[in-house]
Amino acid sequence: MHWYALEDFSFPSLDDLISYYVSSQQPINPQVLTSVLKTPVKRQVWEFHHKDVTLKEQLGVGAFGEVRAGEVFILGRKYECAVKLAKKVQDEAEFAHAKEKIKEMMHEARLMRHYDHVNIVRMYGVAVDYEPLMIIIELVKGGSILSDLRTRKGTVSHDEKINCMVLGTANGLCYLHSRGCIHRDIAARNVLYTGTKIAKISDFGLSREGCIYRMKGSKKVPIKWTAPETLSTFTYTLKTDVFAFSILVWEVFSDGDEPYGDLSSAETKRRVMAGYRMQPPAGCPEGIPELMKRCWEQDPDERWSMDDAVDFIKYRIAKLPDDDSIGERDSRDAKANFMMLHFAMLAFCILQ
């Protein structure tokens, strides 16, 4: 139970406290007689009470928060969801970091509520009446593309990798760029993958609105996914995301291997800025090496846009036959040809 006090009065909830001010028309600040509550500001559809959310099992945990499965009531209907919770911090030494993390979470929520696309994780809303702060998002039960690739290592077909993982991510990123958003953390670990094989971009904590963003101060960045011009100038553009996407493509076709192998972040940074690029994973289907090459060009002006990448995947790669099913497809074609010949001969006999 949370109690709210007003001089000699106490109220069991914030709603009761506000109702008192509205009905009594008492000024909120006694020294400012005009500070009276008159016109209410309606709660937005994405603003929830904590009581609307039921928390279930833990899905993940970090230094300053956790993610839980849950259920949320929206307009009288119950939906499965995932809930990001900010950790309550008691230690003053951690307070500054926790405050920054909460700021990042709220920034993420403000961004995500504007997006509606099948390849973007949906944000239902927030609950901020009291601690812990909650961000309520779509529950994706399948985990990330990275975890899926590692779990099913060596068994994911080229067709699924191209049409579901790579093209799905590309479509989602293309949508974000059309809305003027730089994601800044595209990687296989940050793209969730449903049981129905739909890729959904998540983790918008580092994302920024606009087509250019200059990072202030020294902050941790995912070096192995970061474009060379960003490593040298700390400036992010839409083309920074395109470079990160090329590394994601490499991850997909290496079945979730670590980019640049055992190279340290410092050595990776030095080499990438000097123009070094990884070799395409063994067994890449035709077109994938070209896609990576175009998306990780050293000069961002020469690098493809996500529109270019999507078009290339759709019209040059996605139509290629999947190596895993070529034999099966040949067998079906042979059977179809035999049946056509059989019916042709039958028709000829009838006509005679």
Automatic annotation (TrEMBL):
ATP binds at residue 88. It comes from the Eukaryota. PROSITE patterns: PROTEIN_KINASE_ATP, PROTEIN_KINASE_DOM, PROTEIN_KINASE_TYR. Residues 53-313 form the Protein kinase domain. SMART domains: TyrKc (SM00219). Keywords: ATP-binding, Nucleotide-binding. GO terms for molecular function: ATP binding; protein tyrosine kinase activity. The keyword tRNA processing does not apply. InterPro entries: Kinase-like_dom_sf (IPR011009), Non-receptor_tyrosine_kinases (IPR050198), Prot_kinase_dom (IPR000719), Protein_kinase_ATP_BS (IPR017441), Ser-Thr/Tyr_kinase_cat_dom (IPR001245), SH2_dom_sf (IPR036860), Tyr_kinase_AS (IPR008266), Tyr_kinase_cat_dom (IPR020635). This is Non-specific protein-tyrosine kinase.
